[in-house]
Amino acid sequence: MHYLPRLLEKNIAEILTSGKSILLLGPRQTGKTTLINQIPATKRISLANPRDRLRYEKEPFALTAEIEEIAEKNNRPIIVIDEIQKLPILMDAVQDLIDRKIAQFLLTGSSARQLKRKGNTNLLPGRVIPLRLDPLTQNEQKSLPLTLNNLLIYGSLPEIVLLENTNDRERLLDAYTTIYLEEEIRAEAIVRNLGHFARFLELAASESGKIVNFSKLSQEIGISHSTIASYYQILEDCLIVERIEPITISKTRRKLSKTQKYIFYDLGVRRIAAHEGTLLSKEQMGHLFEQYVGLELLRAIRLNSQRMFLKYWRDPAGPEVDWIIEVNNSYIPIEVKWTELPKKSDIKHLQMFLEEYSPNAPKGFIICQTPHPMKISSNIYALPWNNISNIFNNQSIL
């Protein structure tokens, strides 16, 4: 199958060249194994292989012995261990080898929960550089003839994107979601009532991108608020949802929303988990478009060298801004509109935000379906949906 180069390859190469080790986390099917196979390594171990996993489970010390032997012939060999969450006990051996400067490691995992579940698992603080591999970004798909509708309905997982037939995409998404979410994630949950968790999963997918209403979910499923919160934590630990915090500080507005949002990491997976079809209303497509932009912003933030955070802003009295990039104690507000020609009325909340947080918010953006960038006002610009990365260029980032 055709390989799409990943932007993270450059980051990985630079970190390994500097002598550091890496822990690469990402949901299943985002292409971690394919990516690490592009990186030169002295030895590769896949714990997805039952034979290897059983061997190291019985004899964890064998890893140290093997790598010490390799190191006698290769100075600081690069060792790849795929699916490290399947055998967290090996993390102690990895730390020892890193501390003694015997080897560098490129570790991959698809569940932070499994790495932490023992309570005393060694997550190698200060010894590995954590990286995250997401579904494909816009820039990684530029060579493909994709449409916005397809991205909103089928998502951005590499294997799905590379399929030309929509029926094949639907079947693979359905199989993947059933196997991964229904079996593995539910097994991870260790919940007493799998029926409750299955219903929660469906509702969480339907409510993706919206401010979480714990009372509503609690009433619909018949479980407590604390259980709802623990279920969301499971999805977050398993890298299925992204948590978005609100901006809560304001000079004049005292009742800003303080509740977080959750977004499913892939829109195709979200749709299947929500048991939705492919014929969606204009309102649904608009809401998916908002989530799509949020996911693209998150992925760009992770690839950017500056320290940034993605947030949102909402006053229950009415004004709200879909996404806020917080960087260097300043803000970049971003509205998402399902239109080709944004109007003056579309920027009123952006203007409120820019005035409220001036001078820390000098400009704002509307992401829409306009074919070309537009200047809407003195400090608000409209960008095409496929040029989101322009927000992060040297002229836009504060």
Task: Explain the overall architecture.
This protein is α/β, with parallel strands linked by helices and 398 residues long. The protein folds into 2 domains: 8-132, Rossmann fold (3-Layer(aba) Sandwich), CATH 3.40.50; 136-398, no CATH class. Helices cover 39% and strands 18% of the residues. The chain has helices at 8-17, 32-36, 50-58, 61-71, 90-99, 112-116, 148-154, 158-161, 166-189, 194-206, 214-221, 225-237, 267-273, 282-303, 348-356, and strands spanning 21-25, 43-46, 78-82, 104-109, 128-132, 241-246, 261-264, 308-314, 320-327, 330-336, 364-368, 374-377, 380-384. It has an 8-stranded mixed β-sheet with strand order 7-6-8-9-10-11-13-12, with helices on both faces. The protein has a 5-stranded parallel β-sheet with strand order 2-3-4-1-5, sandwiched between helices. α4 (61-71) runs parallel beside α5 (90-99), α7 crosses α14 and α9 packs across α13. The radius of gyration is 22 Å and the shape is globular. The two termini are 40 Å apart.
What labels describe this entry?
15 helices; 398 residues; Rossmann fold; 5-stranded parallel β-sheet; 8-stranded mixed β-sheet; alpha/beta; 18% strand
Short description:
By secondary structure, the chain is α/β, with parallel strands linked by helices. It contains 15 helices and 13 strands. A hairpin with a 5-residue loop joins β8 and β9.
